[in-house]
Amino acid sequence: MQKIRILSLAEASFVTFLWSTSYILIRIGLEEINPLAFAAYRYIIASIILLFPFYYQLKKKGNFEFNRNYILKYILLGFTGYFIAQGLQFFGLYFLNPVTVTFILNLTPIFVLALSIFFLNERPTITQLIGISITLFGVYIFFYGIITDITTITGVIVTLVSGLGWAFYMVTLRHYLGKNKESVISLTSLSMLVGALMLLGTTGITGNLVNVSFCNWMIIIWLSLVNTAVAFSLWNHALKTLKAVEQAILQNSMLIQITILSFFFLEEPITVQKIFGMIIVFIGVLIVQLWVKKSS
Fold it and tell me: How far is Cα 86 from Cα 99, in angstroms, rounded to an integer?
């Protein structure tokens, strides 16, 4: 069990790196593509890719239960995890820079914590709460006095709602994976397909379908194949072992990764204050993970 837990932590950590690079690539792509079309194209392609392993699994098992409850389940996961969480995240990156979006999304663990207590009966330890508090304090230090450049409340609101949607998705997914022993492939592929169709339908209705250059198609395909199809499968697989709160806290380390990537690729400066904040965030994440390891 200890080896499985270490592998799950490594799996989830690798995914956070892939998702951190996504922020940079999306920011570059948004110079040409509107947020709604960008999200729709990415998740339609990714969901089609994931249908292949789903079909293989279905062919191997020979049957697949499909009823009203299953339909509602995929609609709920698709709506919260992709249409709301991922779709609005593109809008957040359209209005705000990647580091600011990451800062706002660091509030997601608070949502996950509350939802996990009520719906999953997963109560964090005192030490985990201390780790969460330290992490959030590090975020506060990181951005203290330097977020005055946010000129529109729209970006803040849509990013907060995106974080809330992701919290609902993680808690709901954790429920189905942990309690009902659902397949990671079927939950990921079908819920993503539902969410992608919602995004594509909204894009078409609002007249936001656009032509894309070859360079940006390469970005979309990479995001769809590696940073979405592969990454979401790995993330959801790790969620079978790790608690929702633990993975949400692990996501906070993306603040460090995105800041470094933004410095090299978007020329956003790193100050002493930011470095200090990143160190505190890292310590907070480490406390949560090491305490769980010790008590396992």
Answer: 16
